[in-house]
From TrEMBL, chains A, B, C, D:
GO terms for cellular component: cytoplasm. It holds the Pfam family SepSecS. Pyridoxal 5'-phosphate binds at residue 75. Belongs to the SepSecS family. Keywords: Cytoplasm, Protein biosynthesis, Pyridoxal phosphate, RNA-binding, Selenium, Transferase, tRNA-binding. GO terms for molecular function: O-phosphoseryl-tRNA(Sec) selenium transferase activity; tRNA binding. Pathway: Aminoacyl-tRNA biosynthesis; selenocysteinyl-tRNA(Sec) biosynthesis; selenocysteinyl-tRNA(Sec) from L-seryl-tRNA(Sec) (archaeal/eukaryal route): step 2/2. It is an enzyme of class 2 (transferase). The modification N6-(pyridoxal phosphate)lysine is found at residue 284. TRNA binds at residues 271, 400, 466. GO terms for biological process: conversion of seryl-tRNAsec to selenocys-tRNAsec; selenocysteine incorporation. It comes from the Eukaryota. This is O-phosphoseryl-tRNA(Sec) selenium transferase.
Length: 491, 491, 491, 491
């Protein structure tokens, strides 16, 4: 509907009503214009109608949707199943070209435009989340682990002779596998126990760096968000080390965007030392389905060439889908919605922590003191269970429809991950002093969720301490659920 | 609606009608049951309603959709934007776990089940397309290039000391970049000119293999589908070589599924030699949006361990989206729809070829003779254009809403791709004797498309031969479009 | 996306691609512009993307969707359930105002515009279907029966003292109830038997008109589409009668739009006599869900005032939903799609008729000769069934998933409908000489449907003639299904 | 997915996860079962996934969706436009049969079941809203005005000789036209001025009833919800009058469901007198798009026969769409959501009223005292506007994106509606002492809406009192908007 169409509409419906509608249309066009000009989150989230309209309009900029277009190439974004076509709004070409994932596609101006905007909005969202210095972001249609792999491959292209990745231990498989997958050699740096909490052994990193020689080291790979009782890595110290040694430093910020402390630490470390890039999942931080990650940087010196290399390393095209999800979500939230979402989590954390501590105390257990972890909380798990393995408490919770509560029990059996043997895998430490379970105060959690959880936890602990069986768990289900719980332990 | 619900419904609506409905429900349940039991394409495509219902039911098997579920983990598949939630039917957990992309997720039984079924259906579809021997398939939510990279990384894990990839030249960037991205060294084997057609120089491959030593060679990487005048690689010869030398052999079958000749060649080469895996895009072969590829094998000996390694190499989770697209499309088509789609293309090819040859002849040009390419066709491009670069003819077609027609003009400037210099890049040969343009008879093309294309081509060639300018192309647009055409030349 | 937005987009994506997209956008705008200017079916159906975009844009013209709008009225088109909001594209205000269903709503310029266009497109579609003289159409969100009632109420407002509706018998309850509902007195005119076919007794109508006096007669209400062996009413004769007597003449053209003979008869009768309005269902003629009808006219003299009165008689607002369905369907089809749909049915009719006759003959039955019915066909039903009621054959077909086949058996019991007793109700005649079943060659039927039907019919007749029971019909289901069939008989 | 399917799924995904999913499925089935057994609002609203699944399952109970079904009738619910098919979830048959809108359709068990449930849920929702005595409800796919017409037509069938409708004046066109449309004679009973408020003149009704004679009176038609300064009619007095005289009493409860006072009054009047039926819109009371109304009754004696007659009067089929909207909305809300929605409005009313009074006072105006209207509020409008018509203030608000604010200015010109002349139409009284504007505290209004409204109102009144022009309203727009405002005045 352009102005001519509105003029013609006045032949059918009174001018004054048509003009009011035209005025509304102009307001919407101004929203789009502002987005294209500013490339920042809109101050307020877009209404669903405007959002859908804009996605439609972008999709209609791709050649496969042009009226009268005829495709005689080998890839013409034909979609044969209507249900599939519809869920993609008509988009079909994906993103990227042979040369570069960020390159514009001639046949797909709309997809390309969406991708450029998504990258810009992602950078803005990271700034609003606390990393004020974020300069550039590249949304990849790959989850975090694979995005770490891609970033390491890009570093490898830039430092072909380096082969070691210095990596403060974090017992989360994806990260270690991300190193292993691309062929580098992970060098595990054990954590130090500081009270209840596990922290980076900066001296050990320094020593290992000296031992291997900076040129042999592909990068330091540190971690922010993690399961308690591990705390965020000492980014500032590591960045200073990296700067001194001239070694790249990459941060696995998996779900750290939701935590202002992590984001500020990244910003500060980037300013005062060397932090080439930080990588975060889109699903956990922006509440979209699994499938994307953002490689971002605050460093004017090291960031842009690395991101360009990541982009250029990507061979061929890729799915637009996770990018579209993030893009739509950011426009839906707007700056105010996004910061409010973050603020709600931050505001709820102290309450949740206190209430969890109270339930723990009521059962003779203790909330572990982990001041450098603002997302995950751990509660000691002592006696109980009547001889059943600790992990079966996880099964009891699962049967009560609690997902995501993770039991961590000391294990005498070493576990091999990516060819490396770990003692007490899952605890980030070969000899963590007690068993515990973890709970996250993650983005999007509601007070109602927490209340229900604490109620069910209380019930479960009561049973557990009594050494009784969970109420409605028949024998064979229990066994199965235990199996699950053991797997969950290291998920 | 279970039987109790139907019984209750009889209290509101006459039993005979309710029973008829119940009967229809049973028919649908039998369709699902058969799918779960057979794990093959249904004989006929499912109607949209059954398909949607099944996707809904699968999504409701994931814990994030359970009524009463409370998530206290760091990843609970919360989706904040309704538009995003809806396009994923409620799925949010992606696929894979830290350990393995094919591993079942405790929180996501539905997503996991969908993925297992998608892999089984993909294998079946490959069999129906001509590779009767296909044993196993792994759908990756990565496009072809990146899937080649993953496969090579898996091989690297299995053959850590091998570093060369022997690669008959194909001037398509993604493939070469897929090798480069993972750090192996591509060894280019030039093609032989056989009449108009370019074919594999098997002797050169053999010689290079001997020169480098089998242990140093990560794999042979051959190609089926490609732009004419290159033909499909001599898979049988290469597979025999690979078998003799004990070297893996991977086939880039990018859009070759649609061509029975390619699929049969893969099957035969797998039987008579060594062909570890073949990789194909989901978008070009199954008409879904860009974003997925299938790594498959016909080899009982070499396939399963390689696919398991690819699966285990993938670090962390991944998007379900491209898998969902393929799954829905295969159920939508069914065996009869899928084979009919393939048959239509095959049946149309001779007609399209003849009509293209006729248009070419009418303008003094010639359809190049490329009997080993059943998808792409090339037409010589001699005089014309009044001194303008040949590629500007592509721009003229683009302005006429023809996408995918690719002009290939000999170029004196070598081009560097992934660090290797190529003379006459885009032509698969350093000295291809003439300029030409290519056209594909790709899956999903209709007779109406072809007719419109030939009409517009005829018009464009008439102008071109007259050395006139294209009708409505103002100067500055011409320049831009030329730029585009040049890029398109090597896309 | 206006031109400024496109210009800004050029800062992110190469101008030449953006301009191509802009060109495509202009093409779409031209389609909309042409629709608004011509108010006729577009020559070709719109693609799904353009159609959705346009509906979105119309919905965004309603004030409830305006960014920043605040509603303080009692009706502000708030929609609380997202699923509901979405299926209406944001439309919420319905159509009409207190004064008139066709009146423009100040708060809903988009809905109002859509309604005006829907009326115009409906008139055009009627012209293309054969009533070339159609001048005006009013789409009502009421099915046919209720639309007849509204039309009669409008006539009543114009002729307050008339109370009789002269009505050639058609055994379809809705029509008679439509008269009864609004309080007029139906005067039944029995049909004449002409060979197998039942036709209008024009003399009886004339006589009755004379008897009652023109001023006492609200209108003649004739029928086109009906179950064989009744034929279309003799519209021309009735229209001449109406013209002579100065009595309104309304045609119930329920599903007659799909039949060119009916439409031409309406046109001719309008030219040569008096035919004030004809009324047709949207669902049967345009393949949308039940819920709408079109009141239309070819008469310059009598039509416009009647339609205006119908419109003004409607008290208050009404659902937009059936209007939206018709509107979207007509744009989806376009003139070429619409006429092709009609042509397919017309072309298939002779084949279907022949094949049905052949099956009938094979079982010793006969296709009744009803040359004035081009939609419904009737086949005699003689011996068989082993003493079971004839209608149980309908149940056998229903169990075989045949819907819509209607058994008509002579019945000694008179049936009362709207207070009037009918002998042999369902047969349009008090003494139709044989039992029969009817089958329709209705719009949208496919050759595959017919083939399956004839196969199942053949099987059923074989069993029936053998006096055997249907194969898989357990006793109690049979009873229930019979019950259904009896109801179906007069549906 | 029945149990066999789940068992088969265990062959692909670990049993424990599948069983958890099966458990979730059972929870959902229990929700459906409970709905079918209880036929009341579920205690809590259903999640979107369960709701969609259930609608899908219902749609799949209609024969047009059966796999293998072949239709040879004239109406087979074929839907040709995919966009249309999808918005109806596959439903196509509408509701009703020739005989009765509430009758079950053999071809459409799902639609029929949905309709039965919708009627039951509607009755329950009315009870929860305050009319605890509600016994029965019939949802009609007709808006309020037309539903009043249908109800009067039903009464007419039951009392063929009655022709007058006694109707306390309410200046809302639809209601009067609803009487006129069906041919009865409205007898206007003027309101009494009681302070600021207009109330029913019960004595005048009694006198008129005596004058006309009970047998000549079709019914009393009273009104609850209306624009202030009119209050709700004195239902109890009128019901007692009706009981005494043996005359039916119908209440136009257009948007009164949202007001507990109206609902309780209906309940009480039904208990202590005669109140045959009350009619309410679905859009205003349940926040769905315009298109439906509910005819309900609390009377065991008079209600059921009347509702049966309404149902039987409806000739033929009708749209399912407005029924589906209500059904989905009620399941979405559940009892807790529904009562919370009502409670929010009720709780907000006093605040809104106070704040409106304060703004009025600040500009020298006054909130009229209308204690018997709990939805609409009126504010006096004295000096201002610099000689421009009072209604132009409405235009100023409209331009500021305020919809629904209605200006009512005394007018010397009588206005004819449905053939009756009214002095000062729009004010419910021939000589209301002042001009005013009305504002509604309607269901779904938010505090944010009210704040924005009051701010813009304050600004508008400031300008108005200054006699200045509205800021951005150019001359010609002003004129147009004034035109609109005048219409709005009586909308």
């Amino acid at each position: 509907m352009n102005d001519q169409c509105f003029a013609l509409a006045e032949g059918l419906v009174s001018s004054s009503y048509i003009r009011q509608a035209q005025q509304a249309r102009r307001t919407r066009e101004a929203m789009v214009k502002s987005l294209l000009a500013q490339r920042r989150l809109p101050p307020h989230g877009w209404d669903d109608a405007t959002l859908r309209l804009f996605l439609h309009e972008l999709a209609l900029m791709d050649s496969n949707t042009f009226p009268g277009n005829v495709g005689v190439g080998e890839r013409e974004a034909r979609v044969v199943c209507p249900l599939v076509a519809q869920r993609h709004f008509g988009f079909g070409h994906g993103v990227g070209r042979s040369g570069d994932i960020a390159e514009v596609q001639p046949k797909a101006a709309g997809s390309s435009l969406l991708y450029k905007l998504a990258n810009a909005l992602a950078a803005d969202a990271l700034r609003l989340a606390g990393a004020k210095e974020a300069r550039e972001a590249l949304v990849l249609p790959l989850a975090t682990g694979m995005s770490v792999t891609m970033t390491l491959l890009a570093l490898k292209a830039m430092r072909p002779h380096a082969k070691y990745v210095l990596w403060p231990r974090i017992d989360q498989k994806s990260c270690l596998k991300a190193i292993d997958a691309m062929g580098a050699i992970p060098v595990v740096i054990d954590n130090l126990l500081d009270g209840d909490e596990l922290r980076t052994d900066v001296d050990a990193v320094r020593a290992k760096l000296a031992e291997l020689g900076a040129d042999a080291v592909l990068c330091l790979l540190s971690t922010t968000s993690c399961f308690a009782p591990r705390g965020v890595d000492k980014l500032l110290d590591l960045s200073r080390l990296a700067a001194e040694a001239g070694v790249p430093h990459v941060v696995n910020n998996a779900y750290g965007v939701q935590c202002a402390a992590c984001m500020k630490a990244i910003g500060a470390a980037s300013r005062h030392g060397r932090l080439d890039a930080f990588i975060q999942s889109t699903d956990k931080n922006f509440l979209v389905p699994v499938g994307g990650a953002i490689v971002a940087t605050c460093s004017a010196e090291f960031g842009p060439p690395l991101l360009a290399q990541v982009s250029a390393t990507y061979p061929g095209r890729a799915s637009l889908s996770p990018i579209l999800d993030l893009f739509a979500t950011l426009l839906h939230l707007g700056a105010s919605g996004w910061t409010a979402l973050l603020a709600r989590r931050a505001a709820f954390l102290p309450t949740f922590r206190e209430r969890l501590a109270a339930v723990a105390a009521a059962h003779g257990e203790r909330l572990l003191h982990t001041p450098h972890n603002s997302i995950s909380m751990a509660v000691s798990l002592g006696s109980g269970g009547g001889g059943r393995p600790l992990t079966s408490m996880g099964a009891s919770l699962w049967v009560r429809l609690i997902s995501g509560c993770r039991i961590c029990a000391p294990s005498p059996h070493p576990k091999k991950v990516a060819g490396i043997e770990f003692v007490n895998y899952g605890a980030h430490h070969h000899a963590y002093p007690c068993a515990y379970f973890t709970v996250a105060c993650a983005l999007g959690i509601t007070e109602k969720d927490a209340t229900l959880f604490l109620k069910r936890l209380d019930k479960t602990l009561t049973e557990w301490k009594r050494q009784g069986e969970p109420a409605r768990l028949p024998a064979e289900q229990g066994a199965a659920a235990e199996g699950h719980a053991e797997e969950e332990e290291i998920a």
